[in-house]
Amino acid sequence: MKELLKKLFPEVITRFVKEMHLVLRKYYFTGNKYHCPICNNHFRKFLPGGFDLDVITEKNIIGAGRRDNMLCPYCQSTDRDRLIFLFLRNKIDIFNQKLKILHIAPEPSLYKFLKKIKNILYVTGTKYSEGIYFHKNINSVDLLQLPYKDNEFDMVICNHVLEHILDDNKAMSEIYRVLTINGIAILQVPISYQLDSTLEDFSITDPKLREKHFGQFDHVRIYGNDYASKLEKVGFEVQTYDPFTDEENNSNLIPFALNKNEKLFVGYKKK
Fold first, then answer.
1. 48-71+78-268 maps to which CATH number?
2. What pTM, to 2 d.p., does this model score?
């Protein structure tokens, strides 16, 4: 019993301290200028997030770089988390469908939101399960050989993962395989519209050189204007979601502090 308490006590204290820190930060930043739709709190400002590198600026990589109003002070959602949330709420009607969802490398804010929806069977997995960024009981999965049946999931969320994987075509094919017919995959990546073709060089293996060339130490490419066609080659029908053009009341989006240059890539399995 003593050994059990020793193991549990530090974890309980750590969780308590972290939660109290978020609660205090929530009240410190309370205001009316910004709104996080995920945790439904209002703030006078969001927190800065991300980091700048020469390659991010030079190639104008969307989904990378530092932004001043990026992180929700309470649930810690990023601008791209909020973009996905709006798509799920406004275009999928996530609250009123029975869905089986696979979420690869689940973002904490979206994980906390999705796991509470009773009509969803929610499965999470990641290649790296260090238990720091992700919840501690997450499944370890290989995106090149997903341990799931064909046509098993109505939706797969794979947000900023493919840029880490050498054989991204195989990973895309696996996601397509496990989707049901008419299934949906959210497949967001860092992308540069200055590049006609995806930039990759597999001879670059040093983390510092990958950071220099691709914008992060564990990235192996920068996607370009051919990204949609890469998804189409494995079978997806690709559409994009841009709330600033797709939503009727787009003036209401300003408090969400979205990146106006970022659109969501959504793949549909039609056959």
1. 3.40.50.150
2. 0.88
